[in-house]
Each structure stands twice: as C-alpha cells, then as structure tokens.
Amino acid sequence: xxxxxxxxxxxxxxMKKVFLSLGSLLTVYLLLGSTALALFLPQASLTGMQMKTAxxxxxxxxxxxxxPSYSSSEHLNGAVTLQPGxxxxxxxxxxxxxxxxxxxxxxxxxxxxxGGDWEKLKDxxxxxxYDESESNxxxxxxxxxxxxxxxxxxxxHLTETQQRKxxxxxxxxxxxxxxxxGDGPIQAGDDIGNELMGLSVESVQLILKATPSNL
Amino acid sequence: MMSLLFSLALFCYLVVMxxxxxxxxxxxxxxxxxxxxxxxxxxxxxxxxxxIGLFFLPALVYTVxxxxxxxxxxxxx
Lengths: 215, 77
Hints:
heterodimer, A: alpha+beta, B: mainly alpha, 84% helix
C-alpha cells in the first residue's frame, strides 16, 4: 500500500517536471513567434490628411452625423495602421453643392502628396470611394493613380443645395514588394523586418473639384 | 542543480525580453501609443545584431538546456 503511494507521488513529480519543461519551451516559442510577427509584419500609415474644395460652390464635411458641419477644408483621420490582408480603414465625408442657382456640378477628386515615404508607398497604398446613399462603389486606385489625374466620385452629379454622403476606404495592397528600395532583402542600414515597417505618407491633400454640367 | 537555476534565470530573461519587444513594437509602432518607457525597446529591436545576439541566440541556448533536462527527467522515470 505504502509502496504504491510512493510510486504515485514519484510519478506525479515526474509528470510535473515533464509538463513544466514542455510548458516553458512552449512559452519561449510563443514569445519567439510573437516577436517575429511584431517585427516582420509590414505596416504603413496615412497621416495629416485634409480634404479641400477647389470650387466656392462646393463644400465638404467630415463630421456632424445627420447634420454635417460644412466648410471648404476639413481634416480627415487617415489610417494609422495599414496592413496587407487587413479590413480596409473607412471614414465618411459629405459633399454639398452650395450654389444658389440651378446648376448641376460634376465632382471629381484628386490627391496631392509628397511628404514622408511617398515614393515607397505611392503604388502600394490604395483608396476607394463609396456612395453611401445608393451603395455605389468606385474603383480601387493607388495613391499614385489618384494623384495622376482627377477621378470622378461614384454618382458624382450634385444639383443645387444637394448633398451626398460618401465613404473613403484605405488599404495596403496585398501585392506589396518585399524589397521596396530594391537593394535586396535586409542590407546594412535597413531596419530589421520588412522594409515597409513604419513607413508613412504625410500631408495628404484630397482636392474636390467641380465642373458645371447641364441638367 | 546549477543548470536548473541557470535555465530558470534564462527563462525569466527571455520572457522579460520577448514581452517588452512585442509590447514596444505593437504599442509604439503600430498603435503609436506614447509610452516613453518603451523607447529604448524600440531602438533595441531595430538593430538586427543586438536583437539576434540578445534574444534569438539565448532562446536557442534555452532550447538545448531544456531538451537536455527533459531527457534526464525521462531517463530517471
């Protein structure tokens, strides 16, 4: 009886040692995995964003909910963390045709930016516009494509005093290059991890332009 | 006994090191939280030689130590 009790205690101690040893190894490997993920997960950001109108008849709002507060220049939040495969960032804005005469305006949007890591991110970060009222989505274009020419908003006709709610989506392309500066992966002077880590496009301006069109 | 104590100390060191690097990267770089305490850890983890020498290699040493200890335990059982 006593012998079997001693055996059980010994067996318990033995199992405890084995589990503790395996558990500690597992903990260290989980930490290794987490650090590798934290270090190598590419992420970029869009900061200092402003939406402006290039036409006196056009106003824009980025806050105010059901009662938007319009002006000719508004601040946008942008995107703090853009990662491949992540759900795109979304923020809303309203555009209003503020002209008092019977005139329809066709609204386009063009991007202006050169600050921060523009050269590295211009072909990787993408934007899409979405018309909330009629669930009409525009095409995804890269920042470079938005900067190259003014592009129409989805459902972009606004009659006098008419306003429309849009969403703007930001996304990091899934086909990002592993080595954006083209010097081979991790050279002296490069940060550890993916070279997109911590890059940012700063002072992005989204310019809304209006062209009068016939009703 | 000494190797067991060394192994325990190394485990604590790795946990402290790893958790700080993960916290520094996630909080400072990704969520851009303002924790001055983590500044040093962001700098630390951005230097490959320092990071590999002070984290990945000790983790490798710890693995070898633990496997040897585990083998001893299994043999004694």
